Prior knowledge:
Residues 9-76 form the DUF4314 domain. With 76 residues, this protein is α+β, with helices and mostly antiparallel strands.
Amino acid sequence: MSARDFPSKETVLRLKKQYPPGTRVELICMDDPYSKLKPGDQGTVSFVDDIGTIHINWDNGSSLGAAYGVDVIRKL
Length: 76
């Protein structure tokens, strides 16, 4: 991933506003062949970092983040 692939500061701020800590989310799809997460899994947002990754504490014990522009989650 190059610097031009990272979201803009405005996009990161929008994500931080849209997914504040404590927001419940559901996984739609994740592009990670090594993850045990599957569509329908739910979790709680921990924080959004400066490259737009939404860090989630999943109910199954995982703490894998959802990568901006790659993985898809929805608010519950």
